[in-house]
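Q: Given only this backbone (470 positions), what sequence would you predict?
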């Protein structure tokens, strides 16, 4: 690549901290072209710092700056300048989302609602009930032209749900302050939100008056909702599986198992494993969004569902599968959750944590170890060091990789270039990576951009050598 007269590397002065990783955020400018990058920095077992990877792919950067993860901690003198710079790094994210991700949630909520009012002013469609199976705890509605859903807690929760309005709110607060590891949807909580009454469909208005009359209030031509949660809209997993191709179905079920394992790695058990409580994002990732039965994994007791005696079709209450809020009997969960026999077979093979009692107990025991809560958002095969090199407990073989179940094509086909590739023997490593990426190009959920790998390598090599223009 030829260097233009205007070539420079721009890096934000403050690091972005999340969990046990610091991120260097910047971009390479070469003439009219800009190439954003992020470098994660970690500590090894000896306390030394090392660069873990180089992220340049647009999808990987968007997933890193996702609201489904914990917020960043950033020391910013001028937050608006940082957000403006981040808009060039991840153009898919709005200013409201970026303000929220850097820890300024009040500013993010203000901008979000301002954008929402602007959208209402320039749209004409009506609010309708969200597609999918109706929940027993919340009523969900959406605006078809707006990529978010609005969730209202019902006045009368179904008797099968051992919870109350206050407990549901506590669960959402738990998720808000916990590490979501990219598998739990972020929520915005609002009070006294006014909607145009004329924009509510008759079906939605009847539903709200029937299940949540104390939450809504009519004020002239406006409907005031006293309390609600707002989340980004996703396709419910059960609806996705009904119309998915066999390849998409297998990938979704595999990612469903990965989601459960990654949640267990941060001491979270979803509780209700039905597919209607999980959604598929625009990047094909499975995300959990129903929190009324969420529990800490260390507070759960996993049991087998008792086998029925000959001639019996039901169990007595004393031999049932539940004993209070902290007991789960997950052996039959995959077949029970799966809409088809094929999904049940795939689910049983990829979700051992929810299909075997020992898997749940083992995950609960690991969650009690502090080192198990170290979750890496970057696929380990794409990093310059493995978890075994960074964690003494992993070197001794006591802890397994929480990302071990990620499919090989997902780990290798994404454009996450290890820093090690820029050392001696980089050309051979990139040649092997290019061959693997081309072989995986047929995977619909693993876009390969092998050309950008060479582009990034050449660009960094050109900056490493003196230039007559510099």
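A: Predicted residues:
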């Amino acid at each position: 690549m030829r260097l233009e007269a205007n070539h420079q590397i721009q890096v934000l002065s403050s690091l972005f901290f999340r969990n046990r990783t610091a991120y260097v955020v910047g971009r390479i400018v070469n003439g009219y072209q800009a190439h954003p990058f992020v470098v994660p920095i970690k500590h090894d077992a000896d306390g030394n710092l090392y660069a873990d990877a180089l992220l340049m792919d647009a999808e990987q950067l968007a997933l890193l700056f996702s609201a489904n993860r914990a917020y960043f901690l950033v020391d910013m003198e001028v937050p608006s300048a940082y957000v403006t710079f981040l808009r060039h790094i991840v153009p898919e994210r709005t200013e409201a989302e970026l303000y929220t991700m850097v820890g300024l949630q009040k500013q993010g909520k203000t901008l979000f609602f301002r954008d929402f009012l602007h959208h209402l002013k320039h749209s004409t469609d009506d609010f309708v009930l969200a597609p999918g199976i109706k929940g027993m705890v919340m009523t969900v509605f959406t605006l078809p032209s707006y990529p978010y859903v609005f969730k209202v807690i019902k006045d009368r929760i179904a008797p099968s749900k051992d919870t109350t309005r206050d407990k549901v709110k506590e669960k959402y607060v738990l998720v808000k302050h916990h590490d979501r590891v990219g598998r739990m949807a972020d929520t915005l909580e609002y009070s006294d939100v006014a909607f145009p009454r004329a924009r509510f469909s008759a079906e939605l208005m009847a539903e709200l008056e029937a299940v949540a009359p104390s939450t809504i209030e009519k004020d002239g031509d406006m409907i005031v909702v006293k309390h609600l949660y707002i989340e980004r809209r996703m396709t419910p997993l059960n609806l996705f599986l009904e119309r998915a191709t066999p390849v998409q179905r297998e990938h979704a079920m595999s990612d469903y198992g990965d989601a459960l394992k990654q949640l267990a790695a941060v001491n979270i058990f979803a509780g209700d494993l039905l597919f209607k409580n999980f959604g598929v994002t625009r990047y094909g990732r499975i995300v959990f969004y129903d929190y009324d039965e969420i529990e800490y994994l260390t507070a759960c007791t996993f049991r087998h569902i008792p086998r029925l005696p000959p001639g019996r079709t039901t169990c007595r209450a004393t031999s049932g599968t539940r004993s209070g809020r902290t007991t789960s009997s997950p052996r039959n969960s995959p077949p029970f959750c799966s809409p088809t026999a094929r999904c049940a077979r795939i689910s049983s093979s990829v979700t051992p944590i929810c299909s075997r009692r020992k898997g749940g107990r083992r995950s609960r025991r690991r969650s009690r170890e502090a080192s198990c809560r170290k979750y890496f958002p970057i696929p380990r095969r794409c990093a310059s060091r493995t978890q075994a090199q960074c964690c003494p407990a992993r070197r001794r073989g006591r802890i397994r990789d929480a990302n071990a179940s990620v499919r090989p094509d997902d780990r290798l086909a994404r454009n996450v270039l290890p820093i090690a590739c820029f050392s001696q023997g980089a050309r051979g490593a990139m040649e092997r990576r290019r061959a693997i990426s081309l072989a995986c190009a047929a995977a619909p959920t693993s876009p390969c951009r092998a050309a950008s790998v060479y582009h990034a390598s050449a660009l960094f090599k050109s900056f490493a050598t003196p230039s007559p223009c510099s």
